[in-house]
Design a protein that fits this description.
Blueprint (H helix, E strand, L loop, with lengths): L1 H4 L2 H50 L20 H9 L3 E5 L2 H7 L4 E5 L7 H9 L3 E4 L4 H7 L2 E3 L29 E3 L4 E6 L2 E9 L2 E6 L1 H4 L10 H9 L4 E5 L17 H4 L4 H19 L17 H15 L2 H19 L8 H12 L3 H8 L7 H27 L2
Parallel strand pairs: 1-9, 2-3, 2-9, 3-8
Antiparallel strand pairs: 4-5, 6-7, 7-8
């Protein structure tokens, strides 16, 4: 007996050790999590700073002209350029004034938005080299230099038709004009009314010059509306070749304009290498000093919950939910199980059979027992209390009847 009982002390000693080690484990894990979250935050801040530097240092597509034919966004004109190409018109996008002047000839249409980055001399040289000019972004200066007219002051009509003698506009249909213009003498006005026109065209010995508010008609998000695409094809597709000049500050010849500078332009040359070195150092430090998660440890904690605590907890939940029917069902299920045990029936006996056996044992009405053990459940707390009392009474009666039968000779 002594030898068999000797292994007990080591098991008893192991339990306190496990109990003392568990709190240390619970303390270490939050510390590791805090350190891991700290390093994750540092790495995230470094990556955010690096991304912001790259975005500030490199010009994005959104910083380019909103009417760029190579831009697929809502404000670009890529859709119009694609339609021209599908109709057999060659569209070349150039971004320098010198290249545009070199490639212009009598069979080429010069398309451009307002060349705000060029001086008057630069614009004049570009216009003199072109025989066909379409301006898709008007300005007061370009209206004056092209000698087409001026801005109209009245409101724009909802929709207009060509109402002019330009044959190319015969099948355009209606458009919703943007900015209206008042034509100069000898200039043809189309798509407008007495207050102004959306398109101005002058065709003389200097060639054809046209102006239109492309922001309201030719951008990617507006081109599919009404006759906008047909108007764009009629204006820009008059020649087999289109040179689309996109003005930019990189091609500016003006000295009175402050060119926007990026972050890289405003900082010394050694800043970028230092930032890159700092990022690499931070990442290496995170890998070197960052704490790593250890293997998962499964621990069995000896916790004992008394049945009375479970019963009270479920009772409080049921009372908080005000579910009298669920509580009555639980009470009746317990009563049926105990009655079946005392009456010698199976644990999963039919409730009706249990009710009949209980009624026979205590010599009570079967209908009343069935109504109590099989019938509808109470729906309110006021009905639950007498129902629980009746269950207790029938259970006590069956217990007394069984005890008397056992004690009888």
């Amino acid at each position: 007996m002594t030898a068999a009982a000797s292994p007990a002390p080591p098991r008893d000693q192991a339990a306190p050790e496990a109990a003392t080690e568990a709190p240390e484990t619970l303390v270490r894990i939050p510390g590791r999590l805090r350190r891991a979250l700290g390093w994750s935050l540092v790495v995230g801040l470094v990556l955010i700073a690096a991304t912001a530097g790259l975005l500030l240092g490199v010009p994005s597509v959104a910083q380019r002209d909103s009417l760029d034919p190579g831009r697929p966004g809502p404000g670009g004109m890529q859709a119009l350029a694609q339609i021209l190409r599908q109709q057999g018109v060659t569209v070349d996008v150039v971004r320098t004034r010198a290249e545009a002047e070199r490639r212009l000839d009598a069979t080429t249409t010069l398309v451009m938005s307002d060349p705000y980055t060029l001086s008057d001399a630069g614009v004049t040289g570009l216009l003199d080299a072109a025989h066909d000019v379409v301006l898709v972004s008007p300005s007061a200066r370009m209206l004056r230099m092209l000698d087409l007219g001026r801005y109209a002051s009245g409101p724009s009509p909802a929709t207009v038709r060509a109402e002019c003698d330009v044959a190319a506009f015969a099948h355009v249909g209606t458009i919703a004009p943007g900015q209206l213009f008042v034509p100069s003498s000898g200039v043809t006005a189309c798509f407008g009314d007495a207050a102004g026109a959306a398109v101005l065209i002058a065709d003389d010995d200097r060639g054809r010059r046209a102006i239109v508010d492309g922001v309201a008609l030719f951008t990617n998000d507006r081109l599919a509306e009404r006759g906008n695409a047909a108007l764009g094809l009629a204006l820009l597709g008059a020649q087999p070749h289109v040179i689309w000049y996109v003005p930019s500050f990189d091609d500016s010849d003006r000295t009175d304009v402050d060119v926007p500078k990026s972050l890289a332009d405003l900082t010394p040359g050694w800043v970028s290498p230092v930032v890159a070195l700092g990022m690499i150092t931070a990442l290496l430090a995170a890998v070197w000093r960052g704490r790593r998660f250890g293997p998962l440890v499964a621990e069995t904690l000896p916790v004992t919950v008394r049945a009375s605590e479970t019963m009270l907890g479920r009772a409080r939940l049921t009372a908080k939910a005000a579910d009298a029917a669920h509580a009555a069902e639980a009470l009746r299920a317990g009563t049926l199980a105990r009655l079946a045990l005392r009456l010698g029936l199976a644990a999963r006996a039919d409730p009706g059979a249990v009710a009949d056996a209980a009624a026979d044992r205590i010599r009570a009405d079967r209908a009343g027992c069935r109504a109590l053990l099989v019938g509808p459940l109470p729906g309110t707390d006021a009905e639950l209390v007498p129902y629980a009392r009746r269950l207790a009474e029938i259970e006590t009666a069956v217990e007394n009847a069984v005890r008397i039968e056992r004690s009888s000779p």
